[in-house]
Amino acid sequence: MTFLERFIRRPQQVWLRRLLFQVHLWLGLIAALYVIAIGVTGSILVFKTEAVASLLPRMREPTGNTGRLAPVGAVIRNAKAHNPQDRVVLVHLPRGDRKEYEVVALRGVGMRSSKIMLTAHPETGEIIGGVNLTRSWIGWAHNIHIFLLAGRGGFIANGVGAVVVLLLAATGLVLWWPGINNWRRAFKIDFGLRWRRIVFDSHNVIGFYTLGLLVIWSVSTVYFVWPEKVVTVVNAFSRVSEFEAPVVKPPADGASARFDPDSAIRAARALVPNAQVISVMLPARGPSSPLVVHMAPPGAQVGSSDAPHNATEIYFDPYTGKQLAIRAPEQGGTLGARVLRLMEPLHFGNRWGLAVKVLWAVLGLSLPALAVTGAIMYWNRSLRRHLKRKERPAAPPQHQGLRRTQNDAAGKEKQAEEEADLHHRVR
Fold first, then answer.
1. CA dist list (Å): 110 to 106, 107, 137, 150, 173
2. Are 82 and 176 in contact (CB under 8 A)?
3. What SS3 state is found at 128?
4. Quick one: which of 144, 117, 87 has its CA closest to 305?
């Protein structure tokens, strides 16, 4: 019988499967806490936009009722006056269900900076209130899921963890196969069996049906952590055209930016008259960064905390007001480009409406479910028996033969029970 035939008929007797079992077991035990944390926080972050919206202070009633929006420049000045230490980086304009301006600011420097979100009255531009998102419960969930509470080092560790999950998925697929005679039992859970068998079946079935998503989540995480390396690999199969954001040359006299955001908005509307302005990104990340106006089609849905994935980006020189570049949402393109553009929405499920978000949130809990069922299986298989052997008192020499006979009888009884279970499942 060839190796492949043995694997198809009796995989438990194949040495490679036994080796992969040990790899799967110890990788799973090492990564269990990581998998639980990533799964739970990922399910929470599916609804990040809704969570952020619930935290922000809202206006009660418009005071002027003029229907005219306050200038973005006035909103920015009010935000800076609200807390001079904050650096305003992004302003979301009122749109759809979002009645107020939403202002994103940074407080602090580097990895220790906090993300502040303020709301401003749409007609007066006055600041209504704000919240420190980094220190909120959704900020903690984000910090755990992205940085593992460890900054840049945690971000890199997250990429390593994604590779471990890929190995768990690959080895788990090999271990999932029960043999050609029992293939039906690999696709369902028989709740009529003993609880230990139910846990075993649950681990196999959950892992099999969520295998595709586990691979998508892991590969997209690797892309987020090491985008250049992933693009290099993809370029070998399908060329990806990368957009380089224009670099601004600051004036030699060191003058600050003079081109106001409202002028940029008017210029952007003239360039793309059928689109709506959804946000303005300020050149607050450095003197060489441009001012960017994001515009989206009238029917597009863009939340306050979502990246404007379907937006046209228009870049301006903040010193001269010169238009530098336009980046429209790519349509078509190479297969590699289309795949990479899907990484973010496939990871978070945030592009296809509420039903997909709910589905992604539920399926995200499959990660902790796999970790917990795997730990229970390890307890049943090894730890429980090991602890029982340690607790059992040593038998006198004259009783060792009797104990061996009793153990043999108990082993035969257990084997008979397992064969009866198997017969029940096959039948």
1. 10, 10, 21, 13, 42
2. no
3. strand
4. 117
55-69 residue pLDDT tens: 999 877 655 556 789
Report residue 252: phi and psi, to 5°.
Answer: -65, -25
The amino acid sitting at 208 is F
- Separation of alpha carbons 346 and 224, rounded Å: 12
- Token pair belonging to 31: 């990564």
- Quick check: 370 and 206 in contact, CB under 8 A? yes
Q: In terms of DSSP H, where are the helices of 148-226?
A: 151-176, 195-209, 211-225
> Measured between alpha carbons, how far is residue 103 from residues 51, 88, 133, 135, 193 in Å?
16, 7, 12, 17, 57
d(CA 62, CA 70): 12
3-state secondary structure 270-298: HHCCCCEEEEEECCCCCCCCCEEEEEECC
Nearest residue to 59 via CA among 51, 49, 48, 70: 70
- Tokens for 215? 């691979």
pTM to 2 decimals?
Answer: 0.83
Q: What are phi and psi of 324, to 5 degrees?
A: -100, -40
DSSP annotation of 238 reads S
In the numeric block, which tokens belong to residue 327?
A: 């980046």
Among candidate residues 46, 43, 95, the one with its CA nearest the CA of residue 350: 46
Do strands 291-296 and 276-281 pair parallel, antiparallel, or not at all (unpaired)? antiparallel
Quote the pLDDT of residue 305: 44
Which tokens hold the place of 404? 């061996």
Residue 2 has what pLDDT? 83
SS (H, E, C) 245-269: CCCCCCCCCCCCCCCCHHHHHHHHH
Alpha-carbon gap, residue 275 to 272, rounded angstroms: 6
- Summarised one tens digit per residue, pLDDT across range 140-149 is 999 999 999 9
Are the C-beta atoms of 187 and 206 separated by less than 8 Å? no
φ/ψ of 329, rounded to 5, equals -60, 125
